[in-house]
Amino acid sequence: MPTQVPWLIFLLPFASFLLIGLVLRPFLPKYPKVGGYVTIGAVGISCALALWVMSAVIAAPEHMLMIDDIQWAVIGNLNIHLGVMVDSLTAVMVVVVTFVSLMVQIYSQGYMKGDPGYLRYYAFMSLFTACMLGLVLANNILFMFIFWEGVGLGSYLLIGFWFHKPSAANAAKKAFIVTRLGDFGFLAAILILFANTGTFDAEELYKLVAAGTLTGSTLTWVAVGIFAGAAGKSAQFPLHVWLPDAMEGPTPVSSLIHAATMVAAGVFLVARFYPLFAHSVEAMLVVAVIGAFTAIFAASMGLVMNDIKRVLAYSTISQLGYMMLGLGVGGVAIGIFHLFTHAFFKCLLFLGAGSVNHGSGTFDMRLMGGLRKAMPWTYITFVIGSLSLAGIWPLAGFWSKDEILVSAFSNNPVLFTLAIITVFMTAFYMFRAVFMTFHGDYKGGAEPEHGGHDEHSHGPHESPLVMVFPMVVLALLAICAGWVNVTGGFSALFGHGGGHGEAAAEVNLVTGFFGPLSHPLPLISLLVALAGIFLAWAMYIKKWISAEKIGSMFKPIHTLLSRKYFMDELYENVIVKTILYNGIFKVMAMFDADVVDGTVNGTANGAAGAGGMLRKLQTGQTQLYVLTIAIGVVAIAVCVFIFG
Amino acid sequence: MLTLGLVHFLILSAVLFVIGLFGVITQRNVIKVIMCLEIMLNAVNIALIAFSQYIVPTALTGQVFALFVMVVAAAEVAVGIAIIFSIYRSRESVDMENFNILKW
What we know:
- The complex is a heterodimer.
- Chain A has 27 helices and four strands.
- Chain A has helices spanning 4-27, 32-59, 88-111, 118-137, 141-159, 166-197, 202-211, 216-233, 242-245, 251-259, 262-272, 274-278, 281-302, 308-329, 332-360, 371-374, 376-390, 396-411, 413-438, 465-480, 489-493, 509-514, 520-540, 547-553, 555-562, 567-614, 622-643, and strands spanning 64-65, 70-75, 78-82, 86-87.
- In chain A, a hairpin with a 2-residue loop joins strand 2 (70-75) and strand 3.
- The radius of gyration of chain A is 30 Å and the shape is globular.
- Chain A starts with a helix and ends with a helix.
- Chain B is mostly helical.
- Chain B has a single domain (6-98), classed as Helix Hairpins.
- Chain B is built from three helices and no strands.
- Chain B is elongated, with a radius of gyration of 17 Å.
- The mean pLDDT of chain B is 89.
């Protein structure tokens, strides 16, 4: 494989961004479709190259390719290189990112059809994808940070894509500011690392950690700082509040954010610096605990949401918690494997939600119902995605979730309990969404979230082929993406043994495939998931149990959940308004007005006052001056006599 | 018999200087101030010549200086009187107290 290939993976979407932004949008605004084709072409080629890189990495010894660096800057003794790092983690990430992005771009052609910002949309999408690819390819923590912020910028632009809506503009700001809190930790970690090691290079850092140069509390703080950045981007508790609001963006954007780019960045970052985490017990514990807590915390909120995208948003937060838990208790392979499978089915589910919106014009599940007859393809693919997310054998989600559960079980029973409860909740809320959306009677719908195709706003209808096609492809992957690790191939890529503990030694495809069903742990998780689905079925299809009754019976809990544990209120009213705005900022304002301004004005006033007093000495009486001089001379003479 | 030494001349010079200075500071009439100024200059001349005579008798440095001072003083009086006339025409006064437009 030529060494330029990994570079091209990043450069093609970036070139597409420049081409659309600088050429197509100013000069060819009449042909917006060209922008879509340019993006799809660029990402498509990137995807093909990514698969090439993947095959090269699989073939390479130790699954690691060396790519030459480019010297970027020399500052004193510091030599900053710009280079790409191609290991198994990078290979998996570039494949996921380019593939999911490609599917989303194809889908967007149908979804964004007729939107006045069509070209802008594709320009931003290219930029977003390019930054994410840059992040996963960079071999240098400094460049990771640059692309990391680039991803943040892309998400800001895309969440606020319909910036004329105040809610979208606010959501974009919220996403940017909340993730920035985490980025502060990341930046601090970079500075601590640099102060202690003097290098930005990831592989150098691995070596230093392995050699024991970087240990103890420094390492823990660095790891926690990196994790803070990751928690911001990956919406881990307590920085998860931006993700549900990010639903204000166009649905394909949500799909991309949730599946491959933005939120995956955090998990990727922890995986990239996994050697640092692995040497710090405390940091690993932080990752695992935050992950497990986020998983159950977000899932509980997903139980009561009525907006289909919000259900999916909380589901994403919950699944990201799983990935962090997987990283914390298991290892890179386990966390990234879940990221890998999750990318496909979560992207699919969001595209399905977008398709539902396209057909019925709303995201509110209470206004939907009975859509399975009108939208058969959307229905089937959405159910596949939900089954996969719920972790039903043998779909993709089962395999990755099972590995996390296994390692959590062997690591810490509390974390395992949280995880298994989350499995139940996940199955329940996903099938609650499925039943409310696709079963029962159609309840009217509403206007679609974007204008431009009101020619068919009469009744629900199936989406066009460009939207259905990516969903079908992703549905196939949602079924079989998990099979790559049936024989432990995926884990082996990361230098681990087989994924299924005792079954590691010699698994062939058949025993690997059916093996989990003969072990108690996977069976339990499977039964728990099925129980969740059954409960949703009983409540929303058979109506044996009335959802409203339960809601009113546990009114405080229901309110707590549907108000998102009052986290938004806590942040906005208590932290922002009271502590920051009325507290710290007031003190700062007073400090600025009184102390800083006071010093400046005081100096000026003092000088003016002194001048005002001193000028009185200038009487204009020449004789007074003469007298003063005479006294002065006498005084000097006296001094000379006495001291001289 | 009294022999005159350097000290006597210097005492004379100092006395004259202080008298002049006193006049310059206290007199209201600007003509008197100019006159007192002349007394101060002459006090300095005496001191210069006395130093020259008693310390380096062969060189005439002090005497030459005194001549210069006299010349400059004559010129200064001419200019000074002219300025006083000019001020008198505009202010109708030779009182130093009224010459105070250079104040703040």
